[in-house]
Write the structure tokens for this entry.
Amino acid sequence: MFDVQAIRRDFPILDHKIYDKSLVYLDNAATTQKPREVVEKIESGYYNVNANIHRGVHFLSMAATEAHEEARRTVQRFLNARSSNEIVFTRGTTESINLIASSFADACMSAGDEVIVSVMEHHSNIVPWQIQAARHGIVLKVIPMDEKGELRLDAYRELFTEKTCLVAVTHVSNVLGTVNPVKEMITLAHERGVPVLVDGAQSVPHIKVDVQDLDAEFYVFSGHKVYGPTGIGVLYGKEEWLDRLPPYQGGGEMIASVSFEKTTFNELPFKFEAGTPDYIGSVALAEALRYVERIGMDDIAAYEEELLRYATARLGEVEGARIFGQAAHKGAVLSFLIGDIHHYDMGMLLDRLGIAVRTGHHCAQPLMHALGVEGTVRASFSFYNTKEEIDAFVAGVERVRKMFG
Ligand code: PMP
């Protein structure tokens, strides 16, 4: 496998002291830290190839355009998409889902039509559909889960009706860590002629994703969760589907011609990229994808699984620990509560020990409701975390537990 200490040297922030304690960064599901290469790419982009792209005839503009389009091809290869026309740059997962919700509902849905989501969706994959529900009268159906935090596929099958237009489901839960059987779920949807959108925000950083193998119509993710910059993300869509959908925003670059009488739209993927894109961010995202590829997605998955197994066992030894999410196939996310200690107190006290975890509802309030809690503490791991850090984290949890008697 890889050398974790060597990897940690690529992430200068990991050496920081917080309140004079070594930083233990376990908030990777919220955002990941950035390797030197990514930050340097942003800096050298602005210093060396900064010019607005696509319409320029001058040297810098052409160089910036080529770098942006090469970044698109890197994303295409990373996801194993058929064509770079299928890769649309967005601001992130949230914008990608809003784009599809808006354009898909406009083109393909009318009052009474149904979208299937799951109980463990992030608000980003609930609220955009509710906005469309208010506009178009569409209906949301919800796949329930069992007590282990696995989606109930029997109930999923039952949700389909002749009104079902789309399934929109997360690949990996940001709270429970559950890796949903999306390939099987996509096959089941396709057997009923229904397309599928997969929220890959928590999968792309941790497991190898092959969009052709999965066969989803749409697959979305955020750059900042996969060691890339904030403010850039990706919408993958099958070409025939993106062709069918109307633009999401109007403006520069997404048009073929404009007159006051009639405007025609640009070809893919530009039809969905109105305005000046984040051409520095796209190039830095491509650098991040090359970085994780160099480490190896399979090695990343294996190492993080080992971290999760270790952390689950160690945390399980703490008196009164309740771990949320016991799926057989889990990503490196550990949501928990200790006795009746409030998640917020736990988070704040761990912070004083230099340990960064997330507390609260994790933008998944319907899931919190299903779990019967208001919030949890969430530790989420990356390939740069170590067992020593997990020991420090568990010791911190134990210390807080003792403080509360
Ligand atoms: N979906 C899931 C499963 C997530 O974990 C997140 C981020 N917490 C999002 C969507 C939203 O991602 P972003 O804020 O980068 O758009």
In short: The longest strand covers residues 164-170. The longest helix spans residues 59-79. The mean pLDDT is 98.
